[in-house]
Amino acid sequence: xxxxxxxxxxxxxxxxxxxxxxxxxxxxxxxxxxxxxxxxxxxxxxxxxxxxxxxxxxxxxxxxxxxxxxxxxxxxxxx
Length: 79
Fold this sequence. Notes:
75% helix; mainly alpha; globular
């Protein structure tokens, strides 16, 4: 039972982390516009997260909910 609880807790942490990074990406777009080339200077961590989301998409590893949220962002590009 403890292992199952730990798995649920881990999933919640992962979801929270994803949401947190998504919100940071929204803030970036709101503050700096849609210039994806300058994400690195804003936040190298955010740039890495964006790269990971693109890679996960190519491997069909993102949930539909995540894909939809990213595609709602004006300026989001999958490449």
